Amino acid sequence: MTTRVAVIGATGTMGRLICGLVEQADHYELVARLGSQSELSEMLGAEIAIDVTRPGVSQGVVDFACANGLRVLVGTSGWSEDRIGSLSHRLAGRDDTGVVIIPNFSIGSVLATAFATAAARFYDSIEIVEAHQAAKVDSPSGTAVRTAELIGRARAELGPVSAPHTDQRARGQQVSSVPVHSLRLAGLLARQDVFLGGPGETVTISHNTLSAQAYERGIMLALDATREARGVTVGLDQIVDLGFGTTPTPVGASVTGAGASV
Question: From 3.30.360.10, 3.90.550.10, 3.30.2310.20, 3.90.1510.10, which CATH number describes the 107-209 domain?
Fold first, then answer.
């Protein structure tokens, strides 16, 4: 059965990538490409809306799509805990729509975040450095924020990380007590390093995105999950079994990955 898809933000780098993937897939049909000058009503007629716009635009796109009974796949940063909670409340009990929010479509990135989360219980000093292309408008990245929040959740019984001198601006922005540092540089695509320190040793968990091809598998996995989405699901780790002995929460939970800002 073919599912009709509209891409909002179709003229951007990620939008063009997603349009190409949808067009190549046998079980999807690309019925609308929306750019910055398009009316949101142009997505009507689709069954799934894929939002890869900007943080200031994404909320309106998702609200319009859900109000018209479309399911939505969000690849845009800027979704705070409050916004996710509010959206989940509005969608509670509805079977005709659902939203899947993915901070990062890269399988490697999701694995690196999972590794850092697992290691966080063993080290008190933890900091994140994320680096992206100069054109990325938001910082810290949604991936870095989600990583820090998952680290904070893993350390809930241990307390905040040890992060001295955070009153100094150069020490980064604290997210769930974890200092996050953002670089925006020409020549980069995306990189994240999580540094963990303890007595006599450090551990560094790095993920480096070398090309947009890294996102393709995750995009299609997330799109497949969105076909039956209900409520709000946050994170590719809630769709894919990463092999950590836990079962991903089925799409349809009211809020999966609650507390994440993406």
Answer: 3.30.360.10
